[in-house]
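Hi all, long-time lurker, first post. I run a small reading group and we've been trying to get comfortable going from sequence to structure in the token notation. Rather than ask abstract questions, I figured I'd post a concrete chain and ask someone more experienced to write out its structure so we can walk through it together at our next meeting. Sequence below, copied exactly:
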Amino acid sequence: MSEKDYIARVIRKLNCSGAKREEIRRQLESDIAAAKESGEAIGEIFARMGTPEETAADFNANFSDAERKAGRARRRNRVFVVVGIVLAVFAAWVYWAFPKQQELGASGRFAEEEVKDRARQAVEWIAADDFDSLYEHAAPVLQKALGDDYRTALAGAKAQIGTDWGEIVSYGSAYTAELTQKGRHSAVIQMNVSFENISVTFRFSFDEEMQMDGLYLW
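-- Answer (accepted) --
Happy to help. Here is the structure in token form:
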């Protein structure tokens, strides 16, 4: 298990506000970095700190009632980060009872590198708060879901994950698939992106014209 994976697992188990989660993330990164500089191996650090679940439990036991309340509110709201947008936001995944999943590009309609490039571009727009570009390149179904006040909706989605993401540091592995439902094909991609202050998972879907018709992030 890598340092980033360990910290991410701890953060996911915390019952507190988003601000406190980011504070603890920075604390863990600093503590682990200091231990490594002193010559301690990463395995030894993890053994001393305990499993991610144990570390998270220690933090949770010391949170105030206000932090726990904020954590419960955050968990209620995080299922879909864009308020008011339910499964319609991620249109390619609304037909779970019937869709056929296959390897991306199997139908000849999509090129994997193009899908990855479009996804990275969308991540850059979101990171830069360039919501106008994101909206302009969205399919009508997504534009309708976001509504006229799409800037507020997308800014709110970002804020629920973290108030200060920082710059993009690196892209993790991308997982892709092609979904077919009633003759309609969609390219789906999920990737984890590391920013300076947070790690965010993005899931996008694109229609056959390579317009984004689904967006989900957590």
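A couple of things your group might point at:
The beta strands are 100-102, 168-181, 184-195, 199-206, 212-217.
The longest strand covers residues 168-181.
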